[in-house]
Amino acid sequence: MMASYFDDHDVADVAMGSGSRPGSAGEQAGAAANQLAEFFALLGSSSDDASIRARTVTLLAELAQLAGTHVNLAETLSNPPAAESAIAELPRLAPAELRVVAPAETCPVCTCELAQQDCLKMPCAHLFHAECLMAWLHRHNSCPCCRRELRTDDIQYENKKRERARQQAAKAMYDSMYN
């Protein structure tokens, strides 16, 4: 008898939800998949039983709550908005300038020609319609194309970013001495 890959390598099958920490994303995804399978099984049954309808309503409520949890998590993990002062410092290009600099380029956000309206130039040199970029920067502090970051007013985020940079520099120094 052949052992499975997971037995051979002494690892847990995460896809099945086993081996996940309680409450982890893997466990939640497994629970959501099981609930969804149960929901579709209920939909497929021809019974008109009130208990099945009640269970269906309960399952839908649980799935909606789980979906809301993932949306909140995504918002929490995303970058904070760019600082207004950083946005104000971005160079603004008029349509006449754009006809010379980038005559055939399009805005990566709306895909319309850049030379049709005022544009902003990010520090990474990407160009965007001012309207398109402002909407993005009021939610995120990074370039929509390459993710190069602008300053933000979120002190905690800036402190974490500095700490990550310090750790990377320390690791690079350590690696250069001992590798």
UniProtKB/TrEMBL annotation:
Q: Which GO terms describe its molecular function?
A: ubiquitin protein ligase activity; zinc ion binding
Family matches, as InterPro entries: Znf_RING, Znf_RING/FYVE/PHD, Znf_SWIM
- Specify one Pfam family: zf-RING_2
Q: Which SUPFAM superfamilies match?
A: RING/U-box
What's any GO biological process attached to this entry? protein ubiquitination
Q: Which residues form the RING-type domain?
A: 107-147
Task: Cite a GO CC annotation.
Answer: cytoplasm
Q: Which UniProt keywords apply?
A: Metal-binding, Zinc, Zinc-finger
Domain named SWIM-type: residues:
98-135
Top-level taxonomic group: Eukaryota
Q: Which PANTHER family match?
A: E3 UBIQUITIN-PROTEIN LIGASE PRAJA, E3 UBIQUITIN-PROTEIN LIGASE PRAJA-2 ISOFORM X1
Protein name in UniProt: E3 ubiquitin-protein ligase
Tell me which species this is from. Porphyridium purpureum (Red alga)
